[in-house]
């Protein structure tokens, strides 16, 4: 709704006790008619009006009551003439000085009303005179000429639209075709026959008339729209009392002079909107008598207070530093707003001895005072939320009709949103939790008003640091600047309710603003986006301070932080500073990752892993795993090498997993990986070799792994006497175990623990040494042959010294299972292989067979036979009789055959009972019986074969009819 107000035009009009009856204004001239029959002429001079002349129009008979004095002043600017109706006498004058026209020869008596020219008339000089007995059409030019008379008397008011006119007599309204002189009655002015109401006729559109009807002057009146066919259209307009005068103003407004009981007032409402729910405003007329309302012949331009000071843009100076560069911009802004600082007024109100313009100000003139009234500073700052909401509701259905309306509605929404946000600040200053409805209203209005978010951030203590003003600064309407400065520093951070009242609404508001990225409608988008992103990061960091350490949970503040970073942050440098300030290194690394800066990602993770505080704890106990995964994803070989080696020093196992990863984008050959690991990361290098050799069976690297094992094992033996003692004691303990006790390899494997790396390496060495070809390794072991007995046994086997190796196995190590296996393998050195887990003393061993070629098999069998005889000799020389007897018999029973009976009988001691070798003798006898039966079968088969041959020969002779002759 527009704001209407009175702006004085003339005051203290010299009436001498009379009343003003009519007023008109044109081109800097004001003409005032009085009851005394005088016309006062004023001329505009230096921003005011000066009395110019007083005119007493002639008349035939002085009238009384409503017809007394000057009743009408009708100006005809197109022909520079004026029609003045005084005491029922119409006279003509020239404009602007009101000299008599037409030589004072033309006067018309018995005139009731003069209808001015129709705006649609191109000539614009035809008027209608309402005489007591008829209507007379006159064309005014250099002279006045009658066009025609229409026999229709008693007309008190008429309004033309071309040849069609709407008129009224003292009883009802009618339509008349002035050209064809056809009349059609409409409806009565008053629904009561006894009531006499003044008719009102205005024409809001070229095809419509607005007429008033009612019952009494002090009772409500109704405005009805009638088209040129006489049909009632639209809805009706209600007036608080019957209008004494009715005028139209631009923009769809109708103004009625009414009496609401407390005095004469101007009732203002729209006629072109939804008439079922009218919005009205009233303007006091300022007098009880001598009040009238009319339309001036020409509008005037008037200054509009408040528009310039509120809407002109000014730089929001948050630092209170003067800037002379603003002067030029201020001048531009003043020139821009000056277009709206004046308004056109065409409605005149005369009341008492005063004449005023009824001015329709911009919407801001009525709405801003309402917002200002909502802020009370009598007892500290107080903001009336309900009053602000009422103002907001009043503009919900308003549509901008022009540029000023658009600027005004935007300004009002923005100012109201700041005040609602100020309510949250006030509640926080009192440490009171604001209502959700208050927070929601502030958020929604801040977004609807599209206010620069930097202005809101300037009100929040920790977030004002994030405002990026840019080279031009922040330019907003001056009225908003004043509001912001009045709200700043209301509450100091922190308060217990600060998060709930301020930061959470700010978070949602800033997130909504981020959704507007890329829209061209955002002024200074770069600075705004940087401010919004930095502030949102800051808000989330504050809200996340109380979150538990660890990765983000779905729907948490921390997850919102991660999402914000992953989608990209415009304020990169400021975000980096904030993450450092709040010790959120993981978030910093995530920021680098979103910007594709792998070097900084890795360096930040390195800081976290090395102990730099990270308040979020997202990488607690998992930092190295994250780094390893990231290394597999990036393509920068130099970075991968650098941090791969660094990881190898910290977590060898994880680094080995990385260097062996076949899915990594940067691949390393095994040789390159070993070279990269080098001597700086011996543990990782060893583990990588173990992976290649023990898990992937890469025999190429056996010598490297054996050399590395020996280097560490021998160094430990040299430096640590405890290890040397433990090794020597292991032989003694192993020898003391009852039979069957498994192999020595099984024994030390069962005794080692996860934290005993030395024994694990030794176990692996025993399994790999037989496959090595390194002479350096052999020479190194030779120096410790008395300590590393199993290793030396393998070396002897490799060197072909099977007999010596077997001797050490039996006499020094006491590993009879391995000794038997050594014999079975014909002296092969791989006696400590992982598959050698079957105990030769626990169950029968498989027979001595070979799948090798026959010649090789014979050679191997002979070697095995030789070794078994050496083994038996060594066993029979054992000092422990029981041990000697049990193992020797077991070996004979299991591994010696019938062809070695003579050797067994020769070597076995006399005190060895024959029943101890039962299995050997049984097998020998079975072999002998089997051999005898085999001979019989062969002989039988030979006989069968011979008999078959004889039979075949006889059968052939019979068929040939041969004769056998016996000699």
Q: How would you describe this protein?
A:
The chain is an alpha+beta fold. Among the domains are: 305-340 and 363-493, no CATH class; 689-927, no CATH class. Strands 6, 7, 8, 9 and 10 form a 5-stranded antiparallel sheet that branches. The chain has a 4-stranded antiparallel sheet with strand order 1-30-29-27. Strands 2-3-4-5 form a 4-stranded antiparallel sheet, with no helix packed on it. A hairpin with a 3-residue loop joins strand 13 and strand 14. The chain is rod-shaped. The protein starts with a strand and ends in an 8-residue tail after the last helix. The model is unreliable at 843-854 (pLDDT under 50). Residues 17-290 form the CNH domain. One of its GO terms (cellular component) is membrane. It is found in: Cytoplasm.
How are the SSEs placed, and which strands pair?
Blueprint: E1 3-10, E2 20-26, E3 29-34, E4 39-45, E5 48-55, E6 70-76, E7 81-86, E8 89-94, E9 99-100, E10 107-108, E11 111-115, E12 126-131, E13 135-140, E14 144-150, E15 157-161, E16 164-168, E17 172-177, E18 182-188, E19 201-205, E20 208-213, E21 221-227, E22 232-239, E23 245-249, E24 253-259, E25 264-270, E26 281-284, E27 291-303, H1 307-311, E28 313-315, H2 326-338, E29 342-351, E30 354-361, H3 364-373, E31 375-376, E32 382-383, H4 385-394, H5 403-429, H6 436-449, H7 453-457, E33 475-477, H8 478-487, H9 498-514, H10 525-543, H11 557-567, H12 572-581, H13 585-594, H14 598-609, H15 623-631, H16 637-650, H17 652-659, H18 670-677, H19 682-695, H20 702-719, H21 721-736, H22 744-751, H23 757-768, H24 775-782, H25 789-798, H26 802-813, H27 816-824, H28 854-876, H29 881-895, H30 901-907, H31 918-959
Antiparallel strand pairs: 1-30, 2-3, 3-4, 4-5, 6-7, 7-8, 8-9, 8-10, 11-12, 12-13, 13-14, 15-16, 16-17, 17-18, 19-20, 20-21, 21-22, 23-24, 24-25, 25-26, 27-29, 28-33, 29-30, 31-32
Helix pairs in contact: 3-5, 4-5, 5-6, 5-8, 6-9, 9-10, 10-11, 10-12, 11-13, 12-13, 13-14, 14-15, 15-16, 16-17, 17-19, 19-20, 20-21, 20-23, 20-24, 25-26, 26-27, 26-28, 27-28, 28-29
Keywords: Cytoplasm, Protein transport, Transport
GO biological process, one term: endosomal vesicle fusion
Domain CNH: 17-290
